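Hello Y.,

Per our agreement to keep a running log of every chain we model this quarter, I'm adding this entry. I've kept the format consistent with earlier entries: sequence first, then predicted structure.
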Amino acid sequence: MKFSFKNDYSEGCHPQILEALVRYNLDQQAGYGEDQFSLKAKDLLKERINNQNAAIYFVSGGTQANLIVISSILKPYQCVISASTGHILNNETGAIEATGHKILSIEKKNGKLSPSDIIPVLENHKNIPHQVMPKLVYISNSTELGTAYSKKELEDLSVFCRENSLYLFLDGARLGHALTSEINDLNLEDIAKLTDVFYLGGTKNGALIGEAIIINNQSLQEDFAFNIKQKGALLAKGRLLGIQFLELMKNDLYFDLARHANQQAMKIKSALLKKEILFLSDTYTNQIFPIVNHKLIDVLSEKFEFYIWKNIDENSSAIRLITSWNTNEQAVDDFIKIINDHV
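Predicted structure for the entry above:
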């Protein structure tokens, strides 16, 4: 059976979560997120971000989180700005557009936006009222290319957005991996202070399902629960999500799992660098994009699954390797051995 480096959600959940779900299975609890587990998990998150005024909602997945947040924040004539690599552009089947909101795309090779990228978009949308109004900046951390924002980069973007009356929304499907990368200088409290809304992803980091939407801007909190319900995201058995986030937040399990995933990716990256293999982007999270020849791809494909991300030339392509909280040392060692034997 092949070992998969295709994604970080092929795994089940961490055993600690499964044990908790079984342990509390017969307990009767209030529904719709009012159970004791969801309430405790929200309290823990508020402590971690140092913001007792935050509003927190648990939903089942990332596309659902993006759809609900963006559609609830924007007025019908407003639009969202995203890097060309953004998940909302490439992997959500037009979910945002289906709610009536245009996405303005900015071409970025590293997946990260900066104020200088956004200025031309604002300049080109001054034909009022004949054009859509840019109102929300969507970013992800880590990005779809495995890159991560530094504190300075996020601060600059946050200041720019506030000076230009733009909301800043951070997709945190892989936020754990960004915050535990070896070059990271951000923490959850920083993320909360610098964004209007973000979400903390569980699906790709040890949970069965689940993302925690955290609304820091109090002006955006009113009536948000109506949007959750209307979009079919308010689970009757909300404790399914509450139990998972409570376990993830206790004793830093969430960050331990993300750190493990990063370490496995960096182990592979280090071995590839020693063979002078180039990368599509320089990443320090659990996604790496080495550029390898087609013969090596064929050999690796015999034992491993991964995506061919981009064709570079007739002889080589960039592949995407994603490690997870459950990626084992043996699989990584076997992958590296093939590299050492054939390069």
